[in-house]
Specification:
By secondary structure, this protein is an alpha+beta fold. It is 20% helix and 38% strand. The structure holds zinc ion. Zinc ion (ZN) binds next to strand 1 and strand 5.
């Protein structure tokens, strides 16, 4: 597998509104979309940085995975997402190499992408997302 690029970096935040004061106010980035992903219990905010996005993740429930992440580790980098071609095949490929998958099959993520997560146990503790545009 060769990732095409870093699609985005996911950053866990307590409040998107508060965080944008830094990302927009200081760094001068522009949030172009805020989207809720109900099954992950998160609200996401996206900014482009060149070809790569930043994805801010704010939990919509104290039980959500991002809330639990912040409880354990505090705010900060949550995951890195690589754009790949042939996502379902890439998942089989890494699984055959012994990587533990969180998502056995691609599912719908934010931005209309098909996504799947690899377990941090298999990725030196960096939660890793693979994603592709549905038509690729
Ligand atoms: Zn992501």
């Amino acid at each position: 597998m060769i990732p095409n690029k870093i699609e985005h970096i996911g950053i866990a935040v307590k409040s998107i509104e508060e965080s944008l004061k830094y990302y927009e106010g200081i760094l001068g980035l522009k949030c172009y979309k805020i989207e809720e992903v109900a099954d992950q219990k998160v609200k996401t905010a996206f900014m482009m940085v060149g070809e790569t996005k930043l994805e801010l993740l704010e939990s919509t429930s104290p039980e959500g995975p991002v809330a639990k992440f912040i409880d354990k580790k505090g705010e900060g980098i949550h995951h890195i997402a690589f754009a790949v071609s042939g996502l379902a095949d890439r998942l089989r490929e890494v699984e055959e190499k012994g990587v533990q998958l969180i998502d056995k099959n691609p599912r719908k993520g934010a931005e209309g992408l098909n996504i799947a997560f690899l377990h941090p146990k298999s990725t030196q503790s960096v939660l890793t997302e693979l994603c592709e545009k549905p038509n690729e």
